[in-house]
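Please, structure for the following, as tokens.
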Amino acid sequence: MREARAGRAVVVSAGAFNSPQLLELSGIGQPERLRNLGIEVRHELPGVGENLRDHYAPRTRWLVGKKGITFNDRGRGLRLAQQGLEAPDLMLGWIPMLTEPSPRGPRISRQSGLTLYAHAMRPESKGHVHITAADARRPPAINFNFLSSPPDAELTVRAVRIARSIMTAPAMTPFQMSELAPGADRTTDDEILDWVRKAAETSYHPVGTCKMGSDPMAVVDAQLRVHGIAGLRVADASIMPTLTSGNTNAPSIMIGEKAADMVLSTAT
């Protein structure tokens, strides 16, 4: 057991998974959930761990018959130094390579190809993350609940269809494209969604589990102060009530900078 004391205040900045975990382990959250785990309830905040959102991205996969075009061909040996990737589009992201699983994780495929991921930018599907034991060494349970909102499913299918229309356009003929996934045989909305549910991945943009606001499910206020707890702030992507229509890296940096300014402005 180690004890550390704060002279003035504490800023929790552990991300959308671990910030709510730390609050719950400290007795801040949903009372019944905490009591069931043997944790003394210090403060009731039902929104802790709720409102989890993330970009859910099916990654369509394409073989490129023409050689020397993709990263699979050009990203090896000395040619690797010549390559640089630009940031993906807000809705469709092209990765100029195929990867395949290996015992050590994904590796560049020997086949020439590329990956095109497509997803809804403002998903309404909400999940949650909560601790399962009164033990900081135990990871929390994460339930994204992807595609639980019907509009998310509709937009995801539309995104896949747009990706397919671009990759099969006449201008792509010289590259000898052939669809690897989801596969040209999947044509109906249900068939595409079935593939999405099996193959899609997180975009690593989790937010919302300590959301900012003034409603009953809000965890922090406009100053990032935890409701009802003096001297405690949360400053990371977990405070975002909804997802940005893009990556969360820059907004998270902004949250940290703004939080620093607010802390300094209240210091005496």
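The two ends are 32 Å apart (CA to CA). The CA atoms of residues 73 and 92 lie 23 Å apart.
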